[in-house]
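Q: What structure does this chain adopt?
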Amino acid sequence: MIVSISSSQIKGKLKAPSSKSSMQRACAAALVRVGKTIIRHYGKSDDDVAAISIIEKLGATVERKDDDLIVVSKGIVPIDNTIHFGESGLSARLFTSLAALSHAQLSMTGEGSLLERPMRFFDQQFPKLGVKFHSQEGKLPFQIEGPMIPKDIEIDASLSSQFLTGLLFAYSASQAKDVTITVNDLKSKPYIDLTLDVMSKFGMKLPRHTNYKSFYFDNQSSIYSSNIIHYAVEGDWSGAAFLLVAAAISGTITVEGLDVFSKQADTKILMALKDCGCSLKIDDGSITVSHHSLHAFCFDATDCPDLFPPLVALAAYCKGNTIIKGTSRLIHKESNRAVTLKDEFGKMGILIDLIGDEMIVHGADNTVGNTVDSHNDHRIAMACAVAALRCKSVVKILNAEANHKSYPHFYQDLKGIGANISEIS
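A:
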């Protein structure tokens, strides 16, 4: 699909999309918990759909009713020996560990860029936990046979916190006792906070951690309740960041459904918006951002790498040179995002330098229209769309449908508040 966007003044009110980080963790918790769970405001992105399909194949029954997802589970009892992750890195890393609790022989695969993302963690760690595991040189597809036997283990979490999330869920679900996961070089600590928060709300057994360097599961049992669990999926700060940035560069938007006290890493977008000088108002349950004269800022995105694309769109219209740290976290995403951002924003007249672990965006209010490519990366597609709102001529985005991975209604939402958007094919 090609989407065409021209200079626009936007104004209005929108509801934040559902957080796929929250949604996928809730699906995992609903799967391992014996009983009934009602997930409110459930997500409908491609990654969310993949997570729902996975828990069904691992034994849960799922019913969709209005805005609720009703999950009934007896634990992990696979009914299909093939599990498909779609293109979701979190699902692959989370549900592989949960599937390893089963005695079943399972084949696990995915599609698109997920097939190229590194998963050697499992090759290195699963044999230590009694799991038979085979991959394609550290990549999907996998063959797996459990059950996992939780033991003291030391892991490297420098590539992604998602591997640790999977082990925390699996150890808790297995009622692991008197075992410790020792963690080296953990990145994206806020995502572990989100993991523990979801586990807590489902009554799962929680480990004690020492400054995120060790996670100890004691001899106590879980505090599962026989009552129905009601869990409301949070508004997504990752998706909402694009809306807030769109307002900062080209109008006024109020985004509802965001919790400023959320454990989501991307709440830090508020810090960047404040630092660059836009008008920012926080009310109970809503954020309002308005365009103002913008200036360059410095931001460390090491723990929130998904913010890089909206931050680049913001920095493109900030006077001066913006420095964003943490580019090493961008290599193994849907695309090599640092390089992709440099190339595609370069087509719109924005100079970006990559030096070591830093990205330097040379702001200019003279962006030009051009044809850009999402590289099938949802966040690149949305970043280019937001930047196009101030371009002096039309921007055409190739492979624009990539947004379905996380925010299916993104273009419709922008169009509804005044953006000049048309679909070409």
